[in-house]
Amino acid sequence: MNKIQGLLRSTRAATAVEYGLILALIFIAAMSAMTAVGKSANTMWNHVSDTSTEAMNRN
Description:
- The structure is a single chain.
- This protein is mostly helical.
- The protein has helices at 2-9, 11-58.
- The protein is rod-shaped.
């Protein structure tokens, strides 16, 4: 029990938790950005495919 109380009072433990939270926020932001870029790229390539298919079917 004394070890847990000592850990709760430790500034090193608080700093580790803060770094962990910062890392989690960076990870969430990066995943959100990659998801947005992926969706945008998918839409673009679908448009290219549809346009190419239409052009080939006209002849």
